[in-house]
Amino acid sequence: MIGATPGSAGVQTYGRGLEGLVAGETAISAIDGVRGHLLVRGHPLEQLVQRSFEEVSHLVLFGALPDADRLRRWSAELERFSEPPAPALAALQRVPGTAHPLALYRTMLTVAACIAPSVEQESDPAWSRPARILSWSASLAAAAIRHLAGQAPVPAASAPPGHAQRFLFQTLGRLPSPEEARAFEVSLVVQVEHGLHAAALAALTVISTGADLGSAVLAGMGALSGIRHGGANQLAFEMLAHLPDVDSARRFAREALARHQRIPGFGHRVYKCPDPRVALLEPHAVALLRARGLEQRHEVYRALRDEVERALGPRGIFANVDSITGLVYHPLGLPPSAFPIPFCLAIQTGWMAHCLEYLPHGAMIEPGAVYVGPVN
Hints:
This protein has helices at 45-48, 53-62, 68-80, 86-90, 101-119, 128-148, 163-172, 178-190, 198-208, 213-224, 232-241, 246-258, 276-291, 295-312, 322-332, 340-358; strands at 29-32, 37-40, 43-44. The protein is an all-alpha fold. It folds into two domains: 37-225 and 352-358, Citrate Synthase, domain 1 (Orthogonal Bundle); 232-332, CATH 1.10.230.10. A three-stranded antiparallel β-sheet has the order 1-2-3. The radius of gyration is 21 Å and the shape is globular.
């Protein structure tokens, strides 16, 4: 019954959308949604954006920033799996070209996951499975994005070192500038982990059944495909792209607010203050846009954001990270329909960390439900 003593037989508590409920304990991250702080393994996000994705992913997955030797070995492990199985890439040709890029990417990873058990070795270090998923995912995601333009995959063997640079090279077919590579790497770092959001909980639920790590990540991808979750960055940018100037942005915001219309990229389940990830990404977005002669896109964004936050800020509604990632991805040359993919590339690191943390002592996740049907 609802409201009975926690731990007693048949106890259920209820929050719509599971709001206000917890699924366990974690040492991975802590979010202060009132003051706008995000700690990852005890490190403020503001410090971590100075580091590489390799360093931060090691921290998230294994609990500590790597020393020079462990960083070298972890980076080598990521590079070792940068070439995905050929059947996974071949699957791209059998999927309708009209499919969403995230679905293309997920389908290829499903094929790759079927092959993983045959190469898994008992002697492999504990980080082999996460490294394989991160690196295969990056190459497959790049291939899915290129497929949109009818372009062939770029082999990882010809790519430069570094996870962020390798993905951009395989996606764009050219060497990214240092500024492009750094901006994209920061976008990965700020989105690498964010607690038990919907996709992380989907992955955790799957791993709790005894399924493999690849299946858990695929479950997270499925959840991330929703427009309320990973698809929000695409919607937010497409909204901005239809606003030609600052005046249009202000007018659109005022009219949308008057209609009580939901505006993509604003509001957050946890943050009732400015999302700290926005401030960390904004300088990189501005620099990339300026380099492409697209400064006005940022001016339009700021005009829209100012109007919305002036009206809704007192109610705890501010721009979230989805509002600005498109201003990094667009000047890099990524199509808007592909924007959920780099978000997935980053945050699947956190999913795997939660899965690995939960596995040793976690019970199978089976929440109850409140019955509201007829009683005969």
